[in-house]
Amino acid sequence: MLARREHARGELAAKLAAGGFGPEATERVLDALEAEGLLSEERFTEQFVRSRLDRGQGPRLIREALRQRGIAAAAAKEAVERDDAGWAERASQARSGRFGAAAPADYREWARQARFLERRGFTTEHIRLALGPPPQR
User: Fold this and answer.
1) What is the pLDDT of residues 2-57, one digit of tens each?
2) Is the CB of residue 9 less than 8 Å from the CB of residue 34?
3) pTM (two decimals)
4) Are residues 12 and 43 in contact, defined by beta-carbon separation less than 8 angstroms?
């Protein structure tokens, strides 16, 4: 499994349990893999964040996906915040990739684009920086 891609310890433990391995054997194997440097939560987290950034996802969505994979909240937050300065630019790129370079012409279009960015996991601050202030209604 590790030859294909990085895994979080919790992910690998769940896969081994589904394959019929007992919890004690699973823990011994995972500990041995970590000792040899073949299993690394930090390496998994970095690779995961990088792949999600390439997909145009925002920090909230990435943190939640890491949490679901068993990564501690503090480690997930730290991994996502390493590139904190670039989130507004990433939101702007995601918006222009979907809607084109032109700014939203009216409030309805601004709100539609803001909802798109929100679903992608960007914060309100990143959305406002990417879209600018909402046009008057």
Assistant:
1) 888 889 888 888 888 888 999 898 999 999 998 998 988 888 999 999 999 889 89
2) yes
3) 0.81
4) no
